Amino acid sequence: MKDNFVLGAVLAVIGIIVGMIGFYVFAQIYNPLMTTLINLNRPHEGESVRYTFAVLGWLTIAAGALWTLALYGFVTKERWAWMLGVIASTLSILAGFFPAIPAMDAKTPPLTIASFVPNLLLWLALLLFVRKTDWRIVTLALFAGIAFTLSFMDGVAPIAKFHETLGHGAVNALYLFAQQINWWASAAWAIFIFALVARKPWARVVGIGAGLLECWGGYPVGILNMLEVKRFSLFLPAPLLSTALVIFLMLPYARKLLADWASGKETANAPARAVDARQTVGVVH
After folding, report:
1. What is the DSSP letter of 271?
2. Fewest CB atoms within 10 Å of the CB: 6, 86, 130, 164?
3. Rounded-to-integer distance, Cα 96 and Cα 64, Å
4. Are 75 and 94 in contact (CB under 8 A)?
5. Rounded to the nearest 10 degrees, how much is the dihedral formed by the CA atoms of 39, 42, 47, 52?
6. Are 8 and 82 in contact (CB under 8 A)?
7. How far apart are CA 154 and CA 283, in angstroms?
8. Could you give phi then psi for residue 96, rounded to 5 degrees?
């Protein structure tokens, strides 16, 4: 299917502008938010901000650079430009959404929403209008995107908990070891999204692996926190959603849907179509 390069170029320009705004916002909020949390007697949360906001700021800046390269690609009518836009918007969605949570918790303005909302709209526009994608694939990618974001959040919580529980033996160690597992799961979900929309035949296996990885990292953190606060933990949605996605991806329906999509079919019921030689892939059953 031919890409709408003109619309893609317009979206890339918007992405560049939003990336610049995000760069400025992160520079403005980084130190003040840490100071606010310390003044609220929550230094352990300040430690999580110290590390995670730096990572998210780097992702925002890198996404701006990717949008710039995507703009060049759209102007010169290169099909790879679309994927760069998808990657840039996906990273920016995460970088814009999560920082709003500690900001609102500290009663400060969630300024990174100015990056999150535009990039979510850019992501949808790329999939629905620049290169029209089967709505079932878009829906699956959207749920995987939620798992991507929630898994990252489950990797942030153990940073604060690790500093809060120093000297508490096994509990402290659990937070240490679970932290990176959740971030690796988040990265795996991102790879699944990119492979899925790019029609890669191995996307389904990556998705199953991402979900299982989040189960190993997310359930210990969620259950331990639930026992601590004596209520449902906000760290449980990530492994619960990942479990649901793993079950779905193992179903025959999902296997056929993704195999048909990888083969070049517009929909699961349509005949296979010829695809650009640079994008042709084989089907794995």
Report:
1. P
2. 6
3. 13
4. no
5. -100
6. yes
7. 34
8. -85, -30
pLDDT tens digits along 111-168: 999 999 999 999 999 999 999 999 999 999 999 999 999 999 999 888 888 777 777 7
Tokens of 37: 């949390």
CA proximity to 197, closest of 140, 157, 270: 140
Distances in whole angstroms, Cα of residue 244 to Cα of each of 211, 212, 215: 9, 10, 11
Residue 279, amino acid: Q
Position 143: which residue type? F
Runs of H (alpha helix) within the chain: 5-39, 43-75, 80-97, 100-105, 113-125, 135-164, 170-197, 203-229, 237-250, 252-263
Task: Identify the sign of the CA torsion 234, 224, 214, 106.
Answer: positive
pLDDT, one tens digit per residue, over 58-107 is 999 999 999 999 999 999 999 999 999 999 999 999 999 988 888 887 88
**Dist CA 42 CA 166 (whole Å):** 14
Residue pair 249/277 in contact (Cβ under 8 Å)? The answer is: no
Distances from the Cα of 189 to the Cα of 152, 203, 257, angstroms: 10, 10, 18
Cα separation, 248 vs 224, in Å, equals 27
Type of residue at 249: L
Sorted by sequence, the CB contacts under 8 Å of residue 167 that are 6+ apart come out as none
